[in-house]
């Protein structure tokens, strides 16, 4: 009845091996971080002047980050090989291409620049292909594209750019590309400016005019590469003037104006880290308290992290339901006494019988250890539900959902919303989800009046509600106090605990507090788990839920 990180068991991640949590969750931030570095450094190397110090440094950083990506990809793919085998193939291809392109620049043969360009560009394209194939189905707009397009689109965009770059540098027609092409590739635009510069026109070499004189210490001159490159193709002015030259020294990009790091003199105000002023209690007011439920589960909207298809299901279930008029106590007179007390307590007289609700929740869930979470859920009476959750495991954000829509249940939870940690569906999970839906009638009291439900008295404080579903029947027992307030809910639930076989397991939830929303009085604090009413309770509880808000439609 209550959401769990894994529907078939109390805390399926409890049963997951520690190796999975330590190794995979430890490699995920490293893999993602190196991916960002590889993309940024690769783009920077493309945009910087070829052969410059910045180009070489960015290229090395790109290759190192790509090496880490290629070595961590097989480990991440081994967790879910059926869905992630392409990480190994594309990661190996990207690393091999980039390594070959990096080595090609040291060749002595003329085709080295073409091989360098093609190798590094192919590695970059393969890296982007791996990203889009793995994450495209979960990205807006990209999820509308078929699978083959995700495989081919980076190549379709990148290949023409590589050809264009090769032709611009004289490498398009032939590996030798002629004297002009090789000259442009070896020296770039700056080389052409120097060859036409007045200071080197007579000697044909850079000579001492392009370097600083060590004996006299006089600064030499350097040509502004950007402006000179633009003016290189223009006719020479009649007065013989050329683009302005600037002295080599400390310009606005140098260290002048940064101040002395040791004394702090000359440093601009506001630079550096300042310690925030303590609050009235002597603590940092910007730091969240340890007991804040969102210390580890940040204030994010879990619904916004759902895949597009799941968001469509959410919108469908959240549509206003047709009401059967207003509530009248005479509608429950044929039900068992405990059910009558509960429904007359839960539904105020005259309240429209809305059967759909959106819940905003937070609480704690046991995933190895107790972890804070934030969730939202939509329940459409006895038709289905979607539960979207956000939490953190080992400091890594985990987003996921449990769903039962159109008679099919599934459960997906991903690290960073990308790397699948739990992915399950099938008849057993659907059966477990259907039992959960019946138990969550405590949050949709109007759905308890459905003629599809069969009520049976147990004693003066308990009654059982039964819903036939195909060849299965789901029975939930509610226990109320003399005023009609819910005390606990129990049921035999179809589940697999500790990676064991599926079977009916005793499941229960205790209600600690309730509140009224839109005329419905429903539980707002719930503790749930398996082996209820056993000596192990409440140590075997796996989730604690607090309902912050409920909107009935």
Automatic annotation (TrEMBL):
Parts of the chain that traverse the membrane: 22-47, 59-79, 85-102, 114-133
InterPro entries, sorted: DUF6544 (IPR046674)
Biased composition (Basic and acidic residues): 278-291
One Pfam family recorded for the sequence: DUF6544
Keywords: Membrane, Transmembrane, Transmembrane helix
Region (Disordered): 196-295
Compositionally biased spans, kind Low complexity: 202-218
Stretches with biased composition (Basic residues): 264-277
Superkingdom of this protein's organism: Bacteria
Protein name stated in the entry: DUF2306 domain-containing protein
Lineage: Bacteria, Bacillati, Actinomycetota, Actinomycetes, Pseudonocardiales
């Amino acid at each position: 009845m209550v959401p769990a990180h894994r529907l078939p068991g109390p805390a399926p991640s409890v049963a997951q091996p520690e190796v999975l949590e330590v190794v995979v969750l430890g490699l995920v931030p490293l893999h993602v971080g190196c991916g960002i570095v590889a993309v940024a450094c690769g783009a920077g190397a493309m945009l910087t002047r070829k052969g410059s110090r910045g180009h070489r440094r960015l290229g090395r950083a790109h290759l190192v980050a790509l090496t880490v990506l290629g070595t961590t990809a097989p480990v991440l793919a081994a967790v879910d090989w059926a869905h992630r085998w392409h990480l190994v193939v594309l990661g190996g291809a990207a690393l091999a291409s980039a390594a070959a392109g990096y080595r090609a620049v040291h060749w002595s043969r003329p085709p080295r620049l073409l091989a360098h360009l093609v190798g590094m560009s192919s590695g970059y394209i393969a890296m982007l292909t791996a990203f889009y194939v793995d994450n495209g189905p979960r990205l807006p707009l990209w999820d509308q594209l078929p699978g083959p397009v995700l495989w081919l689109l980076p190549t379709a965009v990148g290949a023409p750019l590589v050809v264009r770059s090769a032709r611009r540098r004289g490498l398009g027609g032939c590996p030798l590309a002629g004297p002009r092409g090789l000259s442009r590739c070896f020296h770039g635009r700056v080389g052409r400016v120097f060859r036409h510069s007045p200071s080197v026109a007579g000697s044909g070499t850079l000579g001492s005019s392009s370097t600083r004189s060590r004996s006299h210490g006089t600064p030499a001159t350097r040509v502004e590469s950007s402006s000179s490159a633009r003016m290189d193709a223009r006719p020479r002015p009649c007065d013989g003037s050329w683009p302005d030259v600037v002295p080599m020294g400390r310009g606005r990009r140098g260290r002048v104006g940064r101040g002395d790091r040791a004394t702090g003199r000359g440093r601009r105000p506001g630079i550096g880290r300042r310690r925030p002023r303590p609050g009235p209690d002597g603590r940092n007011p910007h730091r969240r308290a340890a007991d804040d439920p969102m210390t580890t589960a940040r204030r994010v909207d879990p619904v916004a992290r759902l895949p597009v298809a799941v968001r469509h299901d959410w919108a469908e279930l959240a549509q206003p339901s047709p009401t059967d008029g207003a509530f009248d106590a005479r509608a429950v007179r044929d039900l068992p006494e405990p059910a009558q007390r509960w429904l007359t307590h839960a539904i105020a007289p005259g309240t429209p019988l809305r059967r759909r609700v959106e819940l905003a929740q937070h609480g704690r869930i046991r995933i190895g250890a107790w972890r804070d979470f934030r969730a939202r859920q939509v329940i459409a009476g006895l038709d289905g539900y979607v539960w979207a959750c956000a939490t953190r495991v080992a400091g890594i954000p985990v987003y996921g959902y449990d769903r039962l829509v159109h008679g099919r249940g599934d459960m997906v939870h991903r690290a960073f919303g990308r790397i699948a940690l739990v992915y399950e569906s099938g008849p057993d999970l659907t059966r477990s989800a259907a039992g959960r839906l019946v138990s969550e009638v405590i949050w949709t009291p109007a759905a308890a009046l459905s003629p599809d439900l069969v009520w049976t008295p147990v004693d003066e404080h308990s009654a059982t509600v039964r819903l036939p579903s195909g060849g299965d029947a789901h029975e939930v027992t509610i226990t109320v106090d003399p005023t009609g307030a819910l005390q606990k809910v129990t049921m035999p639930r179809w589940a697999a605990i500790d990676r064991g076989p599926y079977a009916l397991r005793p499941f229960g939830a205790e209600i600690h507090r309730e509140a009224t929303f839109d005329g419905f009085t429903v539980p707002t604090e719930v503790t749930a788990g398996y082996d209820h009413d056993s000596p192990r309770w409440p140590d075997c509880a796996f989730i604690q839920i607090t309902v912050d808000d409920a909107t009935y439609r």
